[in-house]
Amino acid sequence: MNDLIMSYKQFANLTSEYVCILKSEKYGEYRYEYINDQAMQQFQEFGDDVTNLKVEEVLSSYEAQFLIKKYNDTYINQATTVFNQHKGGIVYETKLTPFMDVEGRVTHLVMMMRDITVEHKADLHLEKTKKELYHHIKENEKALMASKERYKCLVKYNKDAVFEMNLDGMYLHANPAIEEVTGYNAEELKGNTFHSIVAVKDIDKVVYFFNEARKGKAQSYECTCVDKNNKYISLDVKNIPIYINNEIIGIFGIAKNITPQKLQERKIKLLAYNDPLTLLPNKALLDDRINQSILETRKQKNLMALLYVDLDGFKNVNDYLGHSIGDQLLIEASQRISRCLENRQTLARIGGDEFVILLSDVLNKEAGVNCAKKIIEVLKEPFELHEVSFQLTCSIGVTYYDGSKAVTGEELLKQADLAMYHIKKRGKNNVVVYNEEMNINIKRKITLETDMRKAIKDGDFYLEYQPIVHTKTKKTISAEVLIRWNHKSLGRIPPNQFIPIAEETGLIIPIGEWVFRTACLQLKKWQQEYFETFRISINVSVRQLQEQKRFIETIKTILKETGVAAKDINIEITETLFMENYEELSQMIHQLYSLGLHISMDDFGTGYSSMSILKNLPIHTIKIDRSFIDDVEVGSRNRALINSIIKLAERLDMQTVGEGVENEKQLAILAEENCDYVQGFHICRPVSAEEFILQNFKEGL
User: Fold this and answer.
1) Angle at alpha carbon of residue 33, lines to 32 and 36, rounded to 5°
2) Are 205 and 199 in contact (CB under 8 A)?
3) Which of 48, 211, 431, 558 could form a disulfide with 396 if both were Cys (CB 3.0 to 4.6 A apart)?
4) Degrees (nearest 5) of the Cα angle 334, 340, 345?
5) Pair (589, 482) in one structural domain
6) 56: burial class by Cβ within 10 Å (0-12, 13-18, 19+)?
7) How do residues 635-665 score in pLDDT, each as one tens digit?
8) Phi first, then psi: what are they for 508, rounded to 5°?
């Protein structure tokens, strides 16, 4: 055994390979016993001698683990192991040979390593080249086969009709899909021309494109054909020249059935320009027709009219009976309106319950009004739907254009809309013709709305106070708070001009909060400086009351911030609001009452209150409307009504206030009828907080 090892050592000094002899003390433990000069270059960092060192003491952890695993495999298998090692960009072929003693135990491992980098790279390159060549050949074979199969599939299984024609346009071959597209199978078409099934209107077009394809230019076009069932079908067709040896020998045709798409396009076009419910022209189509009519009117110097129709109260039908019945009602209403129209007249639906009628080339300015009156009459007839009878009214605005000046369709629509809005605000169910004053009014309204927003920030609003006095003692017991607006350029604007706009736009909410806070601050100041006991009355609107949670929270917050007692605040709500919003207001009134506030019903006698409202709601005061006070001197009937109101209030334990007292006689009559309190210009006009104190002090208060 030792002689064999010595022989290997002598051989190692003669070979150019790296040779290492490792002593195997036991499985997994290997020491270097001999390393030839070539291999020694790998271990220069350990000095000239690494013998008797363990593998893991010489090599890196990773390399030692790798080699020890290989040593262990050779140790166990007792057979030569060959493997490659990659180190520093060099590939080594490594051969491990075990040596056993007489008892068959492995005592040594001889490791021989040689640099095979060049051969390895050559082998890799050769292998790669072989694979690429093989892959290329296979791919070409597959591509050729696939090309043939694709061609067969393309023709046979294509859902579109694929056919071959000779240069005369005769069918030669066709795939099965041609029967699905045209109803004719390939045999039925063979010998016929493609043009034979083309609709007459498109034959010239199809012949032209076929001839262009014969010249070598692929063509694509749409045409209408007649199928076997004699039905029109829309086809998308491609004609492609067939080349053999650079010569055109025929034409390929591909035809796709696009009939469903064409029907859908027509449907989309219909929806783009027509209302989906009534199928009437929509706003887009109406705009186009109005613009055409304007051009024609300017050219011919004739007259055209626009009618803007709004169905009154239609929202209630949707709210209470549902949109399904509402839609049916709209359809029938539009049909009735259509029957009122003649040629060259367009009826369009542009909104939920809004229609516009374009009358082109009318004889005179009576035409639009007469048409509107017809519509009002036909809509009066009851509508019978689902065993329910409906009656509809409508408001109609009319505008005319005579071509004398430039105008846009939108401007005419706006004019008719303004006229409709004008009549809707004044009773509905009527017709009115647009005039320029309406435009001035709407511009003023827009101006006021814009300026009102600034006024809130800039502090242009201020308050005045009108005394409410005891009828008998003439003592001032409270004051009604009235908002005023001193516009920077328009001067003082009456409340009846800006309050409705504030209600409509929602600005009444921040304005109302400002009024409540400012009035409470003033009241607190008065109570601290002049009156220990005093009350103010503040008017609230329906818009404020609709914001129930916010309104209640605002009152609580302001009372807390200002330190004003709830009992010193009187909330005035008009009788009309009580009547129109009883269910909504009932809960609100009880909440206000529970806070300790006083509640007054303002303008009593104008809203026909039911007795249940007076009985069920916690109302403290009834304010008799000024319309009764105005005529109390001239007839006994008004006085009797006032007497009845006062007696009713007494029985219900409520107090009364007579509003709008203008003279001494009215005051005397109210005193005789035992009205508790009065207010009006005869007592005192609304004045500033400072003037209010001066006047009351002057009277010894």
Assistant:
1) 90
2) no
3) 431
4) 85
5) yes
6) middle
7) 678 888 889 999 999 999 999 999 999 999 9
8) -65, -25
Overall domain count for the chain: 4
Same-domain pairing of 616 and 475: yes
263: left (phi over 0), alpha (psi -120 to 50) or beta: alpha
Amino acid at 71: Y
Helix, strand, coil content of the chain in percent (nearest 5): 50, 25, 25
The residue among 229, 262, 295 that closes a domain is: 262
Residue 559: C-alpha distances to residues 442, 464, 693 (Å): 38, 20, 23
**For tokens 């401007």, what's the residue?**
411
**Mean confidence (pLDDT) of the chain:** 86
Q: What are the beta bridge partners of residue 356?
A: 308, 348
Return the DSSP state at 280. Answer: -
Q: b/e for 561-570, b at 16 or more Cβ within 10 A?
A: ebebeeebbb
The reply to whether 130 falls in a domain is no
Tell me which range, 69-78, 87-96, 302-311, is most confidently predicted by mean pLDDT.
302-311
10 Å CB burial of residue 305 (0-12, 13-18, 19+) is buried
pTM of the model: 0.55
The predicted-structure confidence for 419-442, as pLDDT tens digits, reads as follows 998 888 877 889 999 988 887 877
Contact between 559 and 591 under an 8 Å Cβ cutoff? The reply is no
Tell me if residue 569 falls in helix, strand or coil.
strand
CB 538 within 8 A of CB 569: yes
Two tokens, residue 494: 């009456």
Q: How many other C-beta atoms lie within 10 A of the C-beta of residue 581?
A: 15
Note whether residue 629 is domain-resident. yes
> What dihedral do alpha carbons 43, 46, 47, 53 form, nearest 10°?
-90
Reference 421, options 523, 517, 317, 504; nearest CA is 504
Task: Please tell me the distance from the alpha carbon of residue 141 to that of residue 400, in angstroms, as a whole number.
Answer: 80
Cβ burial, residue 399 (10 Å; 0-12/13-18/19+): buried
Structure tokens at 573: 């709500």
What does the DSSP assignment read for 71-122?
HHHHHHHTS-EEEEEEETTEEEEEEEEEEE-TTS-EEEEEEEEEE-HHHHHH
